[in-house]
């Protein structure tokens, strides 16, 4: 007698960082924008880059990966990196990923021509004020060398790609964290490639302060990119995000349970996956009813705590946790830094804690004199769970 597959093994929902959801809903505009951009590149028409910004857990990484897939289907050469505050790591990632993008080019003759550009640039040595800057030289001159190499490499590659009606697309996640050296270089390179009608474009994703970070690096950045705020989904898209995967897996949600799930998730994609997974596992009926929503709620909260909140809480210092507690007491949304400082043990330590939290990506600058949580409903977590401040940071993001 054949054993049946357990219902939980058929669960279509899976919360996780950057995991492709069973139904990518509510992002049609951004996907169409990417498709038009690639189509224009094939026609040798200029584009702007694209910048996606929003809170964590909102689906920016998933969207970035899907957009990269569209570009590759249109035969664009693509690079994907995650930004780093360490300039050296960013340059290393770029020079590691660029040859990999060349290797993925489907046409052998084009791949050979583009590969020749890489070999040529690698053979060039640079000399600054009598100091030869090679691969083993560490310091300011080394970063200048990397900057020149990067520009020459991108320019040469794009010249060959343009002849083949293709382009070079750089996808960067967590862009707000990038060191200003390589960040400024990349913005400048896209600007200069555009002036030469060469197809190099940056498609980035980051926190809500990303537009300000880019403008601070290069004042003309606001004109180089199409900015798209990635917000929570509307109710119609949220219902689709729950119901389409469930129905396709043979166990749809009842109307009443679906309405409850829409209310609980508040349109946040990560919450859809957590509540969908927990409710599916809690049900043995078809359709899945309201009782499963109630049974699965505690498990959904556990998934959210450990998937979105706990590691970030552990990442904060004791002073940082105190700062987060005060923020949560004041508001679920943006708070005035002056209000937090007044309740902190000292204004100086408040400023230091705030800087550390921003650097770690737990909060962001929401405007002049204001900060906000970078993760949806983080304030609820702080008020609800209040983990021990002695709990050590375990190294996860």
UniProtKB/TrEMBL annotation:
The protein's superkingdom reads: Bacteria
* Alphabetical list of InterPro entries matching this protein: AAA_16, P-loop_NTPase
Q: Which Pfam families match?
A: AAA_16
Where is the Orc1-like AAA ATPase domain positioned along the sequence?
24-183
User: Which PANTHER family has this protein been placed in?
Assistant: ATPASE DOMAIN-CONTAINING PROTEIN, DNA-BINDING PROTEIN-RELATED
Tell me the protein's name. AAA family ATPase
Q: Which organism is it from?
A: Bifidobacterium avesanii
Question: What phylogenetic lineage does the species belong to?
Answer: Bacteria, Bacillati, Actinomycetota, Actinomycetes, Bifidobacteriales
